[in-house]
Predict the structure.
Amino acid sequence: MIGLGLRPAGGAALRVLCLGAHCDDIEIGCGGTLLRLRAAHPECEIRWHVLTSDPERAEETRRSAALFGLDPADRSAVRIDAFRDGFLPWEGAAVKDAVLDARRDWSPDLIFTHARADRHQDHRVVSDLTWNVYRDHLVLEYEIPKWDGDLGQPGFYVDLDEETVSRKLQILGSVYTSQKAKAAFSLEAYRGLMALRGIEARAVSGFAEAFYARKLGLALP
C-alpha cells in the first residue's frame, strides 16, 4: 500500500497535473486520490486539462473542478479544450500543440493520465502524449471501466476511506447528469472497482484506486 507522503524538493508546494480525454475521466480514474491529496496537502496546486468537450460537458467539468478545490474560472488551473470526442487520433498535431501549450512555464511533480493499454482511441492518444511531452516526471496511469473490457493488473495503489469513496461518487452522480443514460457511466461499477482494488491492496478501509506506474525512480542517499 502506497502512502501519500509526497514532498517536492526545497519544501515547495506539490504540483499535480491531471490529463483526461473526456470531461469525467479524471474524476472516474483518480478522483478519490485527488481528494486524499488535497486533504494531505492543502497547499498543493492541482491543474486539470481535458481535451474533448462540448458546452454542456465543459460546464459540468467546471462545476466538478470547483468541488475538488480548483478555480474553474482560472484557465491555467482548469483547461478544457473542445476537440471532437472520438477523433483525437485524427487531430494529432493540434492535440499535441494543446498539451505542449499547457506545459508552458509550469512543471508538475506528479501527473495522472490514461493507461497506455486503454482501448479507447482518445485515451491512448492522451497517454502517449503525456509520456512524449513529460519525459522527466512521475506519471501514474489511471483506469476507466467500460465496455472494452480492458482492465489489467495495475501495481500502484492508493487506499481510500469510505468517506472519500462516497464523496467521489456523490460528485460524479450530481455533476455529470449528461452521462447518466450511458451504460458505461455506473456509480455501482466505480464503487465495485474501488472495492476490488482495495482487496488487491489489502487496504484496511476496503477501498483503493489503482494505477500503472511504468517508470519509478528511487533516489538513494
Q: What stands out?
A: The radius of gyration is 16 Å. The longest strand covers residues 45-52.
